[in-house]
Write a structure and sequence with these properties.
Helix content is 42%, strand content 15%. With 149 residues, it is α/β, with parallel strands linked by helices. It has a single domain, classed as Response regulator (Rossmann fold). Helix 2 packs parallel to helix 4. The longest helix has 18 residues. The radius of gyration is 14 Å and the shape is globular.
């Protein structure tokens, strides 16, 4: 049960706002990890990355950071698809949303989302939040099968 090297860790960021994508990428870079970040702008694009291209070409991220409000298939629908798929359901999904509605939080946990976090509007707080998410999900958490991500 050895921890994987940073360079072999991948985060799938599912976010449609170019500004939020840029902010997340900068925050991830500032944290000093060499984690690969793959961006999908829609739920459909994320599913294509995760399901298409044959076994060798499919993306298998260590963590998914998911926005709720996406065009087309929204984050709730994508989360439901991910958690119903036997090949994808063990991937941790952290919701990063500006929504503070209790109904959104409840729905995410009903769909077996791993964590719901409100995006801070302050850049420094956002960078710190991303560092904490990375530290926990990529170094501390254990996934089914006993392997550390």
């Amino acid at each position: 049960m050895t921890q994987r090297d940073d360079a072999s860790q991948t985060i799938l960021l599912v976010e449609d706002s170019p500004g939020d994508v840029r902010l997340a990428q900068e925050a991830l870079r500032e944290n000093g990890r060499r984690t690969q970040v793959v961006v999908a702008g829609t739920g459909e694009e994320a599913l294509a990355l995760l399901r298409d291209g044959g076994a060798a070409a499919r993306l298998r991220p260590d963590l998914i950071l998911l926005d709720l409000n996406l065009p087309g298939m929204d984050g709730r629908e994508l989360l439901a698809e991910l958690k119903m798929d036997p090949d994808l359901k063990a991937i941790p999904v952290v919701i990063l949303s500006t929504s503070q509605h209790d109904a959104d939080v409840s729905r995410v946990y009903d769909l077996h989302g791993n964590c719901y976090i409100n995006k801070p509007m302050d850049y420094e707080r956002f960078v710190e939040l991303i560092r904490k998410i990375e530290d926990f999900w990529l170094t501390v958490a254990r996934l089914p099968g006993g392997a550390r991500v």
